[in-house]
Amino acid sequence: MKTFGGKVLFLDRSDINTDEIIPAKYLTEIDRDALKPYLFEDLKVDGFDPRRDLPGRQVVVSRANFGCGSSREHAPWALEANGIRLVIAESFARIFRQNMFNCGLLAVELPSAAIDRLFKEFAHRPTSAAADIAHAVIEIRADPHAEKVPFALAPFDRALVEAGGWLEYADARY
Amino acid sequence: MGQTVAQKIFDAHVVDRPAADVWVLRLDAVFCHEITTPTAIMDLVRRGRDRVFDPDRIKAVIDHVTPAKDSKTALQGKILRDWARRHHIRDFFDVGRNGVCHVLFPEKGFVRPGTTVIMGDSHTCTHGAFGAFTPGVGTTDLAVGILKGVCAFRMPRTMKVTLTGALRPGVFAKDVILSLIGRIGTDGATDRIVEFDGPVVAAMNMDARMTLCNMTVEAGGTCGICYPDEVTVDYLWEFIRASYPDRQAAAADFRRWRPDPDAVYEEVIVHDVSALEPVTTFGLKPDNVRPVREMQGTPIDQVFIGSCTNGRLDDLRAAARVLAGKQIHPHVRGILCPTTPQIYSQALAEGLIRIFLDAGFCVTNPTCGPCLGMSSGVLAEGEVCASTSNRNFNGRMGRGGTVHLMSPATAAASAVAGCIRNSELFQG
C-alpha cells in the first residue's frame, strides 16, 4: 500500500477539470513519469504558479467537483509523478475519483464546512497533512497547531487502496 | 418497487457484489482508442497479462490523432494496431476507415439497448442514446475490462429529465443540453444516470439523441439514457433484422429496457423547451450558458464544425442550410470535420461538402483533433473559436484560446458574420 501525506497545496476553486490538471497535448506520452513537468500547466487559480507553488507538495486540498471533464487517467498519473497521492476536496467528478482509487491513490471527500475551515485555518501558512487509512483520519498540522479530521472510506475503496489498485484487485478475484 | 433503466441493466449484468453498494458488471463491449488504450496494453504486457477477454467484444479505432502527426502519436497508433492484430480483434478501424469513436461505433451497430459498454473516454456517455449503460472510464478500468470483461460501479442513482413542449425552428438538441447544463450546473448530475423522457426526445432522431446524451458528462452524469423505441429500431435495423421477424417485434423487445412506471428517481426535472432559443457558452465552464442573442457581435477567429457532439450528418445538413450560397467572413478560418467516412461520403453525395468548400471552409478527414487541440485547428493565445464541440475549458483548443460552444447552425451563421450570431433558421 502507498503512503499518503506531506506538504499541502491549497487550490481555492471549484470545478478544476482534468484539462487543467494535464492538457490534452501531453496525452501523446505513453510513459507516466513524462507527464511530471506539465501538471496544472493550464490551471487558472488566483495567484497560483505551478513552477513556484508545486515543488515539494504531496497533498492537494480543493473545493467542489475536482477532476471534472475528460476521463484521462493521466490526471492522477501526473499528480503521482509529482509525489501527490492524496487529494482532499468537497466533492469529485465520478471518473476522476474512481481513477484515483483504481491507481491505489486516495481521494478524500469532506463536507463543505470542513473544507471551508481548512482553507480558513491553514491555507495562509505552511501546512502538512497525512491520511491514516486504518482509522480513516486525516491529521493536519501547521505548527504549533494540529488537528484530526475523520473521513468516510467505503470498504471497497479501502480494499482498492490496500490492494494497490483495481487491476491488482480484479486480477486476483475475477 | 419499480426499476429504472439502469437498475434493470445492472440486474441483468451483475457478476459480483464485493461490497453493499458496489456492483461488478459483465461488459457486452469494450471500446478502445489510441490515446487511453496503449498505456493499458503496456500495463498488461508488463504484468505478463497480455490477453483479451473476447476479441469479438472489443472494438478499437485510431481517432484522436489521425493520420499520426509525429513520432509519439505514430507509436500510440502502432501499439494499438499491433495489439489488435495480435489478438485478432476484427473490428479495428485505421486510417481511411476510421472515424470519431462515438459516431463510428453506433454507425457500425455496436451499441444495443440493454447492454453495458465502457471506453477510456468521458464521452462514452453518448451511447446511452440507445438505452444502454455506457459510462466513460479511465485506463485502469479499461485494462481490467480488456482482460476480464468486467467493471465495478456504485449502484446508479438516476435523475429523470422530462423534456416538454416543442423545439422552435433553428433550435437543436445542442441548445437543449446546453440549457440543461446551464440550469443544473457542472456537477448537477454527478454520479447519476440521466434518463431523458418526454415528447421532445420521442421526436428526436438518433443523431439528436446522441448529441443530448453526449454532453451529460459536462453536468457530471455517468451517462444519458434515451428509451429505445421505433426510432432506435430503424437506426439499428440493418444490424438486427436477422434476430426479429419485423420492426414491431424488435420495438416490443426493446421495450424491456424502459423504466417501470413506479421507478424511483433521485430527482425529476421538467425542462420545457417551448421558449428555448439558440444558446452558447461564455466562460470557461460548460454551465456558463446564455442566449446567442446576448452574445451577438462577439468576434471570432475560427469556426469548428465536428466532434462526437455535433459532427454527424444531420449537423452537417443544418450547417449547410445556413451556408448555402454564402461566403464565410474573410477573417474567419472555417474547419469542417465529417466524423466518419460514411458521413463524409453521404455529405459528398448530398452536395453538402461542395457548399462548405464554396463557402470557404477547409474539410478535414474524420478525427477528434480540433476539439481538444491535439492535432489540428489549435488556437493561438487570445484567439476565439465558435465550436460545435463539448468543452470550453481553459486551454481546451490551445493555450490562451477561448471556445464558445453552440449548435452547427449557429456556428455556420457565425462563420459568415465573423462574430457570434443567430442563424436565420431561428426566427426569434
Can you summarize this structure?
Chain A is an alpha/beta fold and 174 residues long. Chain A has 7 helices and 7 strands. Chain B is built from 16 helices and 18 strands.
Oligomer: heterodimer
Describe the sheet with the most strands of chain A. 7 strands, mixed
Largest sheet of chain B: 5 strands, parallel
Distance between the termini of chain A: 21 Å
Strand pairing plus helix content of chain A: what structural class? alpha/beta
- Alpha-beta classification of chain B: alpha/beta
What is the CATH topology classification name of the largest domain in chain B? Aconitase, domain 3
CATH hierarchy: architecture of chain A: Alpha-Beta Barrel
* CATH architecture label name of the largest domain in chain B: 2-Layer Sandwich
Radius of gyration computed on alpha carbons of chain B:
21 Å
- Mean of pLDDT of chain B: 97
- Overall shape of chain A: it is globular
Please give the CATH class of chain A.
Alpha Beta
The portion of residues assigned to helices of chain A is 25-40%
Overview of the structural elements:
The complex is a heterodimer of chains A (174) and B (428). Chain A has 174 residues and is an alpha/beta fold. Chain A has a single domain, classed as Aconitase, domain 4. Helices cover 30% and strands 21% of the residues of chain A. Chain A is built from seven helices and seven strands, in the order E-H-H-E-H-E-H-E-H-E-E-E-H-H. The two termini of chain A are 21 Å apart. The mean pLDDT of chain A is 96. In chain B, helix 2 crosses helix 3, helix 6 runs parallel beside helix 8 and helix 13 crosses helix 15. Helices cover 33% and strands 18% of the residues of chain B. By secondary structure, chain B is an alpha/beta fold. In chain B, the strands form five sheets. Chain B has a five-stranded parallel β-sheet. Chain B has three domains: 150 residues, Aconitase, domain 3 (2-Layer Sandwich), CATH 3.30.499.10; 116 residues, Aconitase, Domain 2; 135 residues, Aconitase, domain 3 (2-Layer Sandwich), CATH 3.30.499.10. Chain B is built from 16 helices and 18 strands. At the A-B interface, helix 4, helix 6 and helix 7 of A face strand 1, helix 2, helix 3 and helix 5 of B.
